[in-house]
Amino acid sequence: MSLTVIPLLGIQFIRIASKERDDGKPGLIDRSKDIYRKLLVFCLRKPALLISSALLLFGLSLWGVGLLPFIFMPDSDKTVISANLEMPIGTAIEKTDQVVREIEEFIRAELKRDGDEGEGVVSWSSYVGEGAPKYDLGYSSPEANSYSAHILLNTTSDTFNQVVIDRLDAFCIANFPDLKALSNRLSTGGERPIRFRSA
Predict the structure, then answer these.
(1) Backbone angles phi, psi at 153, to 5 degrees
(2) Is 87 helix (H, G, I), strand (E, B) or coil?
(3) What Cα–Cα distance (Å) separates residue 59 from each residue in 51, 55, 62, 176?
(4) Whole-angstrom Cα distance, residue 19 to residue 133?
(5) Which of 81, 109, 122, 171 could form a disulfide with 154, with the two C-beta atoms 3.0–4.6 Å apart?
(6) What are phi and psi of 159, to 5 degrees?
(7) Rounded Cα gap, residues 187 and 184, in angstroms
(8) Is 163 within 8 Å of 79 (Cβ atoms)?
(9) Domains of the chain by range and CATH?
(10) How many CB atoms are closer than 10 A to CB 3?
């Protein structure tokens, strides 16, 4: 209604006399109308070419979608890594603290940047038995328990983040088989998984 009848009534009742250009040359709108009219007439005279071109472009768009990465929310480019550590349920907090201390020693010996040069971890903070304070909009602290810990690491650059993640995960797998370690970049979305259910 508002897209068809109102403009039609507006044209019918509000008539403005068109002004001719003094120099007699067509304006930009007139030239655009001429180009559009010629293009429209060409397409209407060759419907097979128009339909085949549309189908070809549609097929190319479907093929191009396969080249795009499937990312719901891209990772953040901040120089921060979060490591969620979870021991078996019921583990004493002293054991969890000991594991975190060994991981910190590994970070200090292998991943920390030497002085002010090179790539590496600049600083980190550990939280045993509880989650970290809210450091990101998408982060929500888990419930406190004796078998989990959280480590935040500041690195020198986003490109070095993956090196830290890979080496930290490899160290945890090799030295703590009971530990469930998940190191990742900050996500621009929340950390909660999104689930869809169809009936």
Answers:
(1) -120, 130
(2) coil
(3) 12, 6, 5, 50
(4) 68
(5) 122
(6) -65, -25
(7) 8
(8) no
(9) 80-185 (3.30.70.1430)
(10) 7
The size of the chain, in residues, is: 199
Q: What is the spatial distance between Cα 185 and Cα 162, in angstroms, rounded to a whole number?
A: 8
Quote the pLDDT of residue 18. Answer: 61
Contact by Cβ (8 Å): 91, 147: yes
Is the CB of residue 150 less than 8 Å from the CB of residue 135? no
The three-point CA angle 139-133-121 to 5° equals: 85
Report pLDDT digits (tens) over 73-83: 555 667 888 88
**75 pairs with which residues across the strands?**
187
Intra-chain end-to-end CA distance of the chain, in Å: 36
Query: CA 107 to CA 59: how far, in whole Å?
Result: 50
CA distance 134 to 143: 13
**Interhelix angle for 28-45 vs 47-65, to 10°?**
100
Residue 128: both structure tokens together: 């045993």
- Sequence-ordered list of residues with C-beta below 8 angstroms from that of 159, at least 6 positions apart, any chain: 119
DSSP E strand boundaries for the chain: 80-86, 121-128, 148-155, 180-185
> How far, in Å, CA of 120 to CA of 107, rounded?
9
- Written as six digits, the tokens of 125 are 């903070």
Compute the radius of gyration of the chain from its Cα atoms: 31
pLDDT digits (tens, 9 = 90+) for 182-194: 888 776 554 445 5
